[in-house]
Records
---
Amino acid sequence: MTMSAGITELVPEALRTRIVALRRELHQQPELAFNELKTARSLEAALRELGIDDIRRVGETGVVGRVPGRNRSAPVVAVRGDIDALPIQEATGLPFASAIPNVMHACGHDVHASWAVGAAALLVSEPAEGDVLVVLQPAEEVGKGALAILESGALDGVAAIFGGHVDRRFDVGQVVADDGPLAASADMFEIELVGVGAHAARPHEARDPIVALAAVVSALQTIVARRLNPATPGVVTIGMVQAGSAPNVIPDRARLSGTVRAVEPQSRALMLSEVERVTKAVAAGFGVEAKVVIDKGTPPIVNPPRATKWAREAAIEVLGESNVVPLGFLNLAGEDFAHYMERIPGCFLRIGAREAGGPVIPAHSPVFYPAEESLFVGAAVLAECARVASRELAVGR
Ligand code: NI
């Protein structure tokens, strides 16, 4: 059952008009990670228009507004919307399509930012128990924005945080608020194998890094096949190999790089340490030295039970029980909301964004667009998440 008829009723008409206009404005003027200057100004203006006067710039392009609660000494909770776009040439043909060549809101962050502003508006008219911070976060796509917000101290003392992502695998009006793993970590590794070069006809004088590379590539496949608990999904992919410059020369070094995805902290730690251990051990067998550099990206998102219970309660309150649906599959894409959840309990939601009968279009596609009505669902659900969490925290549940 869907509830398209009731969706527009989730927020008052004046606010509907306002957040639709805001979203279209953001969509038309997309900006890349850490360059969201116009976006930040538009969002600040939108918050100010709501009568919110405590508005902080975090870094150059992040914005944090504080919506007063009924009891200023009650625990503070946060609602987050990310605001950055992607380097993609838009091909939706929408009347408000990107006016910037090769930059597009292809991941729906224009909608996420508008949710946060919409939630702020709803919390101004019906406040939570404690204050609510509305976090408009830059640079999600490069996995650095959440850290920038955290490092600013703007969220110090926040007791719970909520956010979500538009998702065309679900109808508008459906929301996923599952506990457990929801998004994977995304770490990169780079390996340099240093041997000894020689003439191709005199292999006995070389320590051939290409042969070692071949063995390392094969051996790394055994991390998922033989070391990881098969009940826990994970990925080790080598996406790039590089060696040699001529068919009759054994080079002195070879390089490979790839990515590790995990859905929980323990398997992430295991796979990363195995990449290093296996590589060094295999290379050593060939008399080749291995240098392994791990570039840690976003952690996995694992929604904890308590905050997820609040989010579910909020989603059910807004949409009805039958519209709070299970994810039904594991998502191995990364999401930098995970950085908050390493320090602050919270819940990350998937918010349906497919109009009735519409196609499933993946995010990051040049024709991706979230159904506009998902604006009202996200705003209403996130505001209610803040109210429920704030109330439950205040009574110490
Ligand atoms: Ni996204």
---
Amino acid sequence: MTRSELISILSTTDRVQMKELFGQAEAVRDANVGRQVFLRGLIEFSNRCRKNCYYCGIRRGNRQVARYDLTDEAILEAADFAWHNRYGSIVLQSGERQSPRFTQRIARLLEQIKQRTHGGLGITLSCGEQPAEVYREWFEAGAHRYLLRIETTSPALYARLHPDDPLHDFDRRIAALEDLRRIGYLTGTGVMIGLPFQRVEDLADDLLFFHRTQTPMVGMGPYVEHRDTPLYGHRELLLPPRQRLSLALRMVAALRLLMPQINIAATTAMQALHPMGREQAIRAGANVFMPNITPQRVRPGYKLYDNKPCIDENASQCNDCLDFRVRLSGVGIAYDQWGDRTSASPESVARQEL
Ligand code: SAM
Ligand code: SF4
């Protein structure tokens, strides 16, 4: 697809055309990655962060947030929950921190999780930008995928969303993605959709970036405002929630048509804009679902944006909801699978050995 074709897809608001687009994207998904979703249990293990991104509710400068760190036991318990419920893989996510102690702690946890699940549980990390040696240490300890959103591929827009200092540098983020790929991670990236100052052309360029870099997985979702952040001051520039969600769904469908075999997540922010937002993303071609398995007691501390869903639920309640939600979307659940096309998945072997 050309840039102008992408722009035209992203700009359409005609209901019939959108229905056709989502139908095509579903058919392409079904034919290429199956009519199913892969599961990644999401563990938001700490909200401590050294950065100050203007859009994020847990940015360092937000003094309203009670900071937390889950204990090793709580993290291992959550990983066990995913394993026993046959999720196939987990995502360990946190704010960005850099210290030898943090690095070693994550490495130790990775080894412990691998040991407890006989290498069966796939592990994705999402802990921001780190030096290449840290990425390598974590890779060797057992992480095989890493999520680092580029947030937007427009350097000018990136600069409006972040403080002007070396900690928030667009080129550094691109270099981090390159480090991850070189070390051997399956790298996921993504963007926020419907940001203030963002143009539909920027979004088309984001899609072309994913294609040009042959990204194996993408997690993208609507930007959702948080009242205690600087970007909230520009909320008058935002599309209304339904239109913003619709734009995000068109991004999902366009990406599926552009990259038929990619893994695309139905992200939580979709559900913040509409109770059925994640189901709609599956109906637009997404194939990854990330049930939240963070212990309920800390969930209110990981409010990236207002109206974040599932704050009052625990992992079991989210698990009960999962089957129902995914079936409503008309697809199956691929239990026990990592869902990586490019890596061997030893999970079924591990289970047989148990
Ligand atoms: N700190 C790591 C990082 O930034 O890569 C990982 C955690 S961070 C909370 C994960 C993602 O949350 C970010 O990449 C960003 O896209 C998303 N996010 C933060 N604030 C958001 C908002 N207000 N609306 C939608 N997504 C948001
Ligand atoms: Fe920190 Fe990530 Fe939020 Fe930026 S988006 S403030 S790095 S948690």
